[in-house]
Amino acid sequence: MNLHGMLTRRAAEDNPVRVGVIGAGKFGSMYLSQAPRTAGIQVLGIADLAPDRARTALARVGWPESQFAAASFDEARRAGTTFITDDAEALIANVDVVVDSTGSPAAGVRHALLACEQGTHIIMVNVEADVLAGPLLAERAAAAGIVYSMAYGDQPALICEMVDWARSCGFEVVCAGKGTKYQPAFHASTPDTVWDYYGLTAEQAVEGGMNPQMFNSFLDGTKSGIEMAAVANATGLIAPSDGLAFPACGVQDLAHILRPRIDGGVLADKGTVEVISSEERDGRGVVGDLRWGVYVTFEAPSDYVERCFAEYGLVTDDTGRYSAMYKPFHLIGLELGISVASAALRGEATGAATGWRGDVVAIAKRNLKAGEMLDGEGGHTVWGKIMRAEDSLALGGLPIGLAHGMKLKASIAEGQPLRWQDVEYDEYDTTVAFRRDMETRDRRNAHAAE
Predict the structure, then answer these.
(1) Percent helix, strand and coil across the chain, each rounded to 5?
(2) Whole-angstrom distance between the N-terminal and C-terminal Cα of the chain?
(3) pTM
(4) pLDDT bracket for residue 26 (50, 70, 90)
(5) How many CB atoms lie within 10 A of CB 406?
(6) Which segment of 203-212, 309-318, 427-436 scores lowest on mean pLDDT?
(7) What is the per-residue burial (b if ≥16 Cβ within 10 Å, else e) of 51-85?
(8) How many helices (H) and strands (E) does the chain have?
(9) CATH 3.40.50.300 assigned to 358-449
(10) Which one of 3.40.30.10, 3.40.1390.10, 3.40.50.720, 3.10.20.30 gives the CATH number of domain 3-154+333-346?
């Protein structure tokens, strides 16, 4: 609990943590709104494919133009200002910590590998890249002596923090996850239908600068699968064998519903991830919903601890053994400074993959014909379903992070998973090759363990 003190000392020593941000979208902009108010931090540079977009974002969050007028990294370093560029590689080479908030799996993999080469800590806001290849990226980062970290403020890192809290207190984690708005029909949603579900017109969405495919990835279940796979990979919790169930649940019922079936809950196993819905299946809103928050359920390990739960007012299930902790919100980029400071000053990640346990495989949204082109996460053709890594490997499942711009070699029925053998792909593409290497290594390790 001393990050602010450590940052204050860096400021007093005129030795700020120099940070680079790649991608000036919503998440990056939210962090940039807070960074100038944080002692001991200098945003040395921002890289964006469209530098003017970054300048517009900085003006929107209240930066004076003089703060981002530097003509080079050296000038920015001397003046304590910020250099804007389209060269992410140069940015990584000039900072202590880099933040990837691009949302592109291919870009995320590339930037993480460059960070390993340059000895630069990396905060991976890009959960898509983390689920596609995070276990191997984290291994490479450890070998390079850098921190590879989830982004605090995003739900996966906050869930990891809660899991760590529970385990450090000696509790067994029964389930952990987040809330969202869910209905089964959402899996078929496309960028053409997404605004109806959000209660917006297309015109209102355009005025708000909202990207329909990105927002649709949150709605159709893909983002939930991605985030829960990231949590499984970081914590050792397991993915549900048949995918996320999205039970409707309010905070007062967490301990009752997110417990094993044998005890009256919905879980097939203890130690799993799950996403809860803020809506009942008939459309009624859940009382005490956790749509924007995160939770962990845990179990009293003894009769004595069970009595303590009662004595100190914990909300439990009807047995008194299961209870829950939750946080009703997450502030995404506004909280990202925790990850930046933790990596730079403590050498610690706020969550990172420790193994490959969860994967997210592309599922057909409708009947797809051979010759069609896939349009990826949140698009018209596929949504992403969480699977256990061993099941994805056995299937030869096509990861959702690569299901973009690939041509189908076979027709796929609605609701069926796509496999590598169903698509045309370039095996020499850097991102494809890196992911395939991770799959090969995992198979080899599994055989060695038999």
Answers:
(1) 45, 20, 35
(2) 43
(3) 0.95
(4) confident
(5) 23
(6) 203-212
(7) beebbebbeebebeeebbebeebeebbeeebbbbb
(8) 17, 15
(9) no
(10) 3.40.50.720
